[in-house]
C-alpha cells in the first residue's frame, strides 16, 4: 500500500528510467495518488525501498543503480530542449526538473544510497556531453564537483574540447539573454574560474598529488590557455567589426577580475595565474619581425590598440605593482620570443594608466642600455628603442618625447656610447641597420640632435647622416624642407612641406603679434636655410588674400620682413598685385562663401569629456579614468590637428609667450580651451557634490596633466587664463572662480610639464623679465588695483588655498609644501590683513575651525569672513612660518604700490591705518629672516626706495589715472617720516669719526652699479629712466637726507661730495646749512665747489632760476632772516643781467666763469620770443665774450640734440635750435674764435670745454656727432686753414655718427618727419663735405688723422682711400722731419 500511495510523487521527484519506471507506472494507474502523504521522509523511505527491491532483482548495489538512473535522467533533461543546437544554458522547464532530481540525489547521498564516483564516471559515457549549466548545478550542489568530474574523464583533450566549446557558447549567449540569465552565466563563469585557478596553479606543496589530479591540473591549464587564445584571436577580428565575437570575448575577461577570487584562492596562486597569463599574452603568436614593429608601432598606441586587449592588460596588471609589472615585462623580453604588438601595447597601457610607470621605464631603459653597450647586444638595443618610442607616442604628459630621450641618452659625452670607439661603432651600426625601416620623424631627430661624437671619430656620424638623408630622399622628405617649428617628437609620418610651411607661418605670426619682433627662427631660416625659406615659407606667407582696410598682424609681419630685406621686391610686388586681383574677383562674385569645417572631431571631444565626467562621480569606475583620458587626449589631438597638428616649437623647453595686455587666440583654439576649462569646472562641481576634494580621486590631476602634454595647446591655454583672470576676473561668476582656482592649483602641480612663460606686460615692462614658472605666471595675473579686483583676488585666492589644503591634506608636510605656489600664500598674506582688521592683531588660532570647500560655492558667502576663517586655521598659520611662503617687506610694498588710491577698496584713512600697521608694527620690528627690517630705520628706508623704483620701472597703472613715472604720494610720505626720524640722531662733535654718506645716495648708486642688460641701448634707456625716477624721489625728500655736515677744522660745514655725484637733481642746500655756524659762508663755499665738482647743479639753477628764486629767497629769509649768501646773490645778479641785456639793450657784463653767465643768458634767450634770439644780441656782446659764445654754442647744440631725440619731452624745436646754433657759429667765425675743442673728449681738453662736457649727460655727449654734422652747411673753407685740428675733429665726428647709425641710436622717431630727420641724408651731407674738404686741407691737418684711418676703412673705404691719398705727402714730410732730428 505504501508503494501504491507514493507512485506519482516518486515519478515527479525521480522519474527513473527503465528499471523503476514500470513499478511507478503501475502505482500511478492504481488511482491511489490522492492518498499521497505530505511527509518527504516517507517519500524518501518509499524511494529507497523501490531502489533496493529493483537492485536486488538486478543483482547490483543500490547506490550503483541510483547513480546510473540519475545519469539517465540528467541526459534526458539535457536532451529535452527546444533549441535545435546545443546551448550551455537550460530553459526554465529543464531547470525545474533538474532541481527536483538534484534534491532527490542529495537525499540519497545523505542516506549512503548514491555512488558519487560512479556518477562522475558515467557522466562521460553519455551520448551527448551534458549542458554546462547542468554541470554547474551538480558542482554548486556539491553532488559532483567540476574537479572531481574532470578527474574521472577518460580523455583529457576531450574534456578540454567540451569545456572550451561550452564556455565559448556561454560567452556568446551572454549577450542575447535576459538579465537574470546573464547573472547566472556570470556565476557559472566565476565558479568554474575558481576551479581552474585552484587546480591549474596549485602551490608547491600540492605538486606531489596523485596522477589523476595532475590530469585535472592539465585540463584546467589547457582550458585557460585555449580560452585566452580565443580572446586574443578576437582581438585581431575587432577591426573587422565582428561585434558578437568581441562581446563574447569581453565576457570571458570577467575571469580576470581579482575580486572574483577573494579568499577562495591562495594569493600566490592568483599571482602565478596572472603572471602566466600576461606571459602568454606577450608571447602569443610571435609572427611580427622587429622591422615590422619599427614600422607599425605608431598604430599600437593606447588609443589605437584594441579596447579588448587594453581591457585585458588593465585587469591583469591589477594583480601587480607597477614595478612588478615592468619586471615581468623585462623577464619575458629576455627569455621569450615575443609578439611585439602585444608587448608595445602593454607598454602604452602601463605608461597611460600608471603614473609611476614613467620613471620606472626610464630606469629600465637605462639598465638595458648599460647591458647593451656592455655586451654589444643588438637585441637589448632594439628593445630600448622600441620601448622609448612607444612610451613617447603617448605624449609628454606621460613620457618624455623621443627627441628629448635621444638627446639625454646620446647627446653628451657622458652617454654609454662615449666610452670608446668600439661603443661608437656599435651605436652607429645599430642606427644604420634601422635606417631602411625608419619613419622620417625619427631620422630627423637623429640628424638634428645627433649623438655626441669626439672630433676624431666624426666620420662615423657623417656616414650615418649621409645614409639617413638618403633614406629621407627615398621617402621624398628633404631635411632642408623641414619646418621652422616642426615637432620632431611626433611619431606620425612627416607632414608635406606645403602643410608644414603653413603651420610655420601661423606660429611665426603668433610670436610676431606677441613680441612685435621678427622671430629669430625666421631670421635664421632666411640666412642658413635659404632653400626652405624661399621655396616654402615665403610662398605660404604671401598667399594672395583680400587685404583688410586696416593692416592686420599678418600684413605688419610682411612689412617688417620687407623692411629687413627678407622679401625680394619683385615677390612683394607680385603679392600685392595678386591680392588686388583677388579683391576684384571677390567684388564680382559676392556669393562666394567660406567652406564650413566639420564639427565632428569637436563634438567627439565633447562627448568623451562628458563620459569622463560620469566616471569621476562613481568611485567604482575610477580605474577607467586613465583609459578615458587617453581617449580624450586622442580626440583633442585630432581637433588641434585640423589647424595646427604638431605645431610645436622644436625645443621642448621653448618658453611660451603671452601678451598680457591683449592676448590673442585663434577662434578654433579658444573654443577648444573653453570646452576643456568648462569640462574641468563641471567635473569639479559634479565630483564635489558627492565628495570633498580629498576623496575625488586623481581624475582632475590627470585631466590637467593631459592638457599640459599637448604643448601646442599651451599658448592658447595660458592666453585664455590671462583673459579670464587678468581682464575678466571681477565679472566672473562664483562657480567660475572656484573652477579656475582649482584649475590653477592642478596647473602648478603639473609645472614640470610646462616650460617657462614669457609674459609681456607691454609698455609697462621697461625691461623684459625672466621667464616665469606657471605658478609665478598666474600669480602675476592676480593684480589688486581697484575695489572690484580686490574682491575678485580675495575670493580666488581663498578658493585656491582652501582647495589645495583639502585636496592634498594626506600628503606629508614636505610634499605639501612642494605643491604650494608661494605666490598664492603671499597674496593672501597681503589681502587678508588689508581687508580684515581681525587679521592684524595677535592671532588666536582656531585649530578646529575649517573652511568647508562646499561652502565656497554658496552665493551668499562673505568673502572676508571666509578668508578670515582660512587665515585662522592652524595649518595655514604653520605655512606662514615657512621661509618660502613669507611675504617680505619689499614684496608687500610692490603690491601696495600697484593700488590705484582713488579706486581702492579702502578709504584714505583706512589705507593710512593699514600702512602704519604694516610698516611700524609688522615689518620694521620683524627679523630679516621673516622678511622684516630688524628694527633698522635705514634698512627700511632702503627697501622703500628700491621698491618705489622697481615698481615705477615695471608698472603701468593704465586706467587708474596714475602715470608710470609718478611716485606713490602715500608711500613717499612714509619714507619722509622715516628719513626725518633718522635725522634725530645725535650731532657730530669735534674729534668724532666722519659721518657716513647719506643713505639715499648709497641706495641709488647701488642700483646704478653693475646693472647690465642684453644691449647697450637697453642699458642706456633703463639708466635714463632710472635717473629720472631718482630725481623724483630726491626732490620729495628733505635736504638733510641729501647733504650732510662734517667738521672742518673747528667748523661744521656742508658735505656735498655725495650730492655732487648726481647730475639730475634739484638744489637742496638751505635746510642742511642750519647745522653750520655761518650758514651763508657754508652755502657760498658749497656753490663755489659746484663750479668744478658738479657744474650741472649751477646750470640747472640757471635754467630754472625764474621758478627757483621766489621759493629760495623766501626760505632763506625764513630760516636766517639775513641777506642772501654771496654766491646766491651772484646767481641772482647774473639772471638779472641776462634779462636786461635781452630786453633793454644794456651791456652784458663780463663774469667768471664765462660758462655760468652763458648758461643764464641761454636760459633767458629760451624764455624770450624768437625775435630776441636775433643776431643783434650776439653782435652787442663785447670783444672779450669769445668764451661766452663758445659756451652758448655748446648749450644750443645740447638743445639741438634734445630736440632730435625727445622733442615732446624737452619742449624745443629742432629747426629753431639748428638755426640759432648756425647763427652763433657764424658769429664765432667772424670773430675768428676757435671752437672745435668742444668736440674733443673731456679728458684731453682743459678748462671751460672740460667743464661744459662734464655738465652734459652721457647720451648727449654720445650724440655730439649728430649736432656737429648738422652744422656742416655752415662750415667755410677758411676754417680748414685756420684750424689744423678741424679735419681730425670732422673725421672723428663722421666716424662716430656712422657707428651710432649702425647701432641704431640715430634712427628717426616714429612721430618725426623722415624728410626733416633722415639720418642718411645727414650722413651723406657730412660725407660730401669731407670729400670736398680733404683736397683743400693743409698738410699738417693730416697728421692727426692717422689714428682714425683704420676705423674709417671699416665704415667708409672710399673716404679712407681719399684721405690716405691726400695725406701721403704729409706723412712723408713728417718722416723727413724726424730724420733731420737725428
UniProtKB/TrEMBL annotation:
InterPro entries associated with the record: FANCA (IPR003516), FANCA_arcN (IPR055387), FANCA_helical (IPR055386), Fanconi_A_C (IPR055277), Fanconi_A_N (IPR031729)
Residue ranges of domain Fanconi anaemia group A protein arcN subdomain in the record: 600-840
Stated name of the protein: FA complementation group A
Encoding gene (name): FANCA
A GO BP annotation: interstrand cross-link repair
Domain Fanconi anaemia group A protein C-terminal: 1156-1358
Superkingdom, taxonomy of origin: Eukaryota
Domain Fanconi anaemia group A protein helical, chain residue ranges per copy: 498-579
Pfam families on file: FANCA_arcN, FANCA_CTD, FANCA_helical, Fanconi_A_N
Domain Fanconi anaemia group A protein N-terminal: 123-477
GO cellular component terms attached to this protein's record: Fanconi anaemia nuclear complex
